[in-house]
């Protein structure tokens, strides 16, 4: 990418944000007493856990990410070259257009995340992310290559419809990465939930989404701005929430936690783990079965 390209600085900003965020949050997590880490790494080697999650991220990079990134950038440049998309038809200043682009992309991310929980085929891939039993900053990189491929295919028509520029998309991806690293981190900070949670997704808000309780798993889908869950009534309150280890029933063993196990997860169905997050009650010692978390099984193709 040329140095004078408008997308050059956002492109450099994203990897810098990834490295800086990882280093800072890893340090903060290290200074947090193990007993205070909410369901994270109390009985697990941090380095082994991070190696598995970032190993999966490397597998994504080697198999899908390089092609997906090129395809997405080609799509934004096509929209830019042909002046197509909603944002280009509106008489907006560059700053206003960028703010609207980030807002709409964040809304799309909420909708896609919801779809990953509602559509059985997508859930097969997305449950790799939810099966992490020791949630920390490295969990933000724990996504299956198949999920990345599906999300790339789904984003292309959205980018064309909106007419998002390359710089706008890279800026959004940088913000998404930074907030994702924060809200997956093993940090207990209730003041963040109280004072920042009205605007952004905080660790407490997103940790509830990784709960083993089905009703909590099927809530708090927002990625950057927390407003979408309040607007569409998919929000679970952090106040009074019981903290427990994250993960999915039947997927705690090493067969599902090694790098090979993570890659094979979409192809197998543990007998005691629901095929779909709404297909059976997700319960635990902290959330025993009750009429509120019972549902009729949903069949999976």
How would you sum up this structure in a few lines?
With 301 residues, this protein is mainly alpha-helical. The protein is built from 13 helices and no strands. The chain has one domain.
Biggest pleated-sheet summary: none
Parts with pLDDT < 50 across at least 5 consecutive residues: 1-7, 280-301
What is the end-to-end distance? 43 Å
What's the total number of strands? Answer: 0
Which of globular, elongated, flat, extended, rod-shaped describes the shape? globular
How many separate domains?
1
Roughly what is the average pLDDT, rounded to an integer? 83
Structural class: mainly alpha
Strand content: under 5%
> Which H/E pattern describes the elements?
HHHHHHHHHHHHH
Helix share bin = 55-70%
Number of alpha- plus pi-helical segments: 13
Instruction: Kindly provide the radius of gyration, computed on alpha-carbon positions and rounded to a whole number of angstroms.
Output: 19 Å
In quaternary terms, these chains amount to single chain
Give an overview of the whole structure.
By secondary structure, the chain is mostly helical. It has one domain. It contains 13 helices and no strands. The longest helix is centred in the first third of the chain and has 36 residues, at about 45-80. The chain is globular. It starts with 7 loop residues before the first helix and ends in a 37-residue tail after the last helix. Residues about 1-5 and about 280-300 have low confidence and may be disordered.
